[in-house]
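Sample 3 of the quickstart, ligand iron/sulfur cluster:
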Amino acid sequence: MTQKRKKTHRLEIVPEECKGCGRCVKACPKDLIKMSVELNEMGFPYAICAGQDCIGCGACFYNCPEPGTITVIEQVESDEEK
Ligand code: SF4
Ligand code: SF4
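Result:
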């Protein structure tokens, strides 16, 4: 019996911390991040993760000037094979 581990990634973005600079949008190699049409409480459009194909590269996180706004979460699913 072998065990396979599959990693997936997803983003958490805190809309109220976002300053709407768009750096994460430009940085994402998979073009997964869009800006909202609505404004947050500070009057800025905010980043939204609009796709499922995040590869966990961290480019959005490292390019964001607002600490704590973007978190890249790694999820590990294990499938057992007989
Ligand atoms: S971790 Fe990489 S692929 Fe995932 S949303 Fe951020 S920049 Fe895009
Ligand atoms: S880089 Fe950070 S502050 Fe700028 S739009 Fe993206 S989440 Fe918002």
